[in-house]
Specification:
The protein is mostly helical and about 140 residues long. The protein contains five helices and two strands; from the N terminus they run ααααββα.
């Protein structure tokens, strides 16, 4: 039986940019139905077979992401997010939850963001790398 993955506690991963990234990642992971690490890694391979993304994400890479260790490569992060979006049945570049004036809003992690999910996640990823957890 696969181990249940849980978001790190605030002691394990204090407030800050890495935690904001992981909170958004866990929200997507939950929306995806909490697939196993093997299922995510297999979907990454399927995505790379269908279209060359230039990124790889093994079970270990995904596990580390969910623990709060942010990959240095956007390509690896991107393909893991694409796999989770597949399980969540949402396009990676979509805008979620209807709002006004043709724009969309959605809440993930610590706040409200208007725009595309992929751009939002790239911003969180970039901030997490720029302001790493001091552990």
């Amino acid at each position: 039986m696969p181990k249940i993955l849980r978001i790190p506690s605030s002691e394990e991963l204090p407030e800050g940019a890495p935690r904001a990234f992981v909170e958004a990642l866990f929200e997507l992971y939950g929306e995806a139905g909490r697939p196993t690490l093997r299922e995510i890694a297999d979907q990454v391979e399927a995505i790379n077979e269908a279209s060359e993304t230039g990124g790889t994400a093994s079970r270990e890479t995904v596990r580390r992401m969910l623990q709060g260790r942010v990959p240095a490569s956007w390509k690896s992060t991107r393909v893991a997010l694409m796999a989770l979006c597949h399980f969540a049945e949402r396009p990676f570049g979509e805008v979620a939850h209807a709002a006004q004036d043709g724009m969309e809003e959605f809440t993930l992690g610590n706040g409200l963001y208007t725009g595309r999910f992929d751009i939002y996640m790239k911003h969180l990823w970039s901030q997490a790398l720029a302001h790493p957890d001091p552990r």
